[in-house]
Amino acid sequence: MSIQSAGTAPIALISGANKDLGFAIARGLARAGHHSVDRLPRYALGDKASAILCAEGGQAEALVLDVTDDTSITVAAAVIKERFDRLDVLVNNAGVALDCQVAVSSLRTVMRDTFEVNVFGLACLTEAMTPLLAGSSRPRIVNMASGLGSFALNSDPDHEFAKVKLSAYNTSKAGVTMLAVIYAARLRDRGIKVNADPGFCATDLNGRSGNRSPEQGATIVIKLATLDDDGPTGGFFDETEPVPW
Ligand SMILES: NC(=O)c1ccc[n+]([C@@H]2O[C@H](COP(=O)([O-])OP(=O)(O)OC[C@H]3O[C@@H](n4cnc5c(N)ncnc54)[C@H](OP(=O)(O)O)[C@@H]3O)[C@@H](O)[C@H]2O)c1
Q: Using a 6 Å cutoff on CB, does residue 20 contact ligand 1?
């Protein structure tokens, strides 16, 4: 697709924005005036997603990014540096839930592949984008966590999802919230706010079993991605309130 000039629009990178929550977040940020850059291992899909956002009057473009591939991350950072010389918003949305594949794959493989995307990929992408975020006047990072990664909610036998004990996914999402806490503390002096949020939305990740739409799930992400300077950092939120760790 053709690349559009971003002008003065805030620049947002959303990993895994070719569908579902990532696409809904990119759409919401594009509507809020951000220039969304999304990720697509399958170029045609991401290209289509960007084209939809542009057709709706937003600014968006596709970027090839595989968070498990350091070269891909480095190239993505270089492209953003060359194109925009800064990044305003990073949404660490890319994620997998592979536990249901235990029957066809070893537990070790499921654990490793889940952590490669959800934890290692998130950390490496965040580190690579931090210098670009430091060039923003209002830098924000949002980690797509999950209530399934909450120690408190997992320990509550009466919690709505108490029976969902996915050893790889839940553990990886606990890592995602920990990384939000770590980066929030580490980047506080540079004004970079880092928060995490959960949600249960009907997407490919859960066989469309979620009870909310991706657009509903994207609401809190967009809010955290566009926080005012007096907004929180190092927190874990759903749409209405803080979520217990
Ligand atoms: N759905 C929920 O209820 C829910 C609840 C809490 C948290 N979350 C989190 O929200 C995020 C999005 O979930 P979703 O439900 O929208 O899932 P989804 O429909 O499965 O979409 C996941 C996205 O991540 C991308 N992705 C996977 N591996 C990647 C990699 N190596 N590099 C870059 N991108 C990669 C996928 O791209 P491809 O399709 O090209 O592989 C896809 O765009 C995930 O982090 C998930 O854990 C979801």
A: yes
pLDDT given at position 166? 95
Best residue among 14, 15, 18, 20 to mutate for probing ligand 1, ranked by most atoms within 8 Å of CB: 20
Pick the catalytic residue from 19, 169, 183, 193.
Answer: 169
Q: Which helix (H) or strand (E) holds 91?
A: strand 89-92
Ligand 1 contact, 34 CB (< 6 A):
no
Averages of pLDDT over runs of 10 residues in the chain (245 residues) are 52 92 92 71 59 83 91 94 94 93 80 97 98 96 96 96 95 97 96 89 90 93 95 94 94
Report angle CA 144, 146, 152 to the nearest 5 degrees.
140
Q: Any alpha helices (H) in the chain, and if so which ranges?
A: 20-31, 43-55, 70-84, 107-115, 122-133, 151-154, 167-187, 214-225
The whole-angstrom separation of Cα 24 and Cα 14 is 10
User: 201 CB under 6 A from ligand 1?
Assistant: yes
**Which residues, 6+ apart, have CB-to-CB distance to 75 below 8 Å?**
64
Distance (Å) of CA 137 to CA 6, 11, 70, 134, 228:
16, 11, 27, 8, 11
Output the pLDDT for position 40: 44
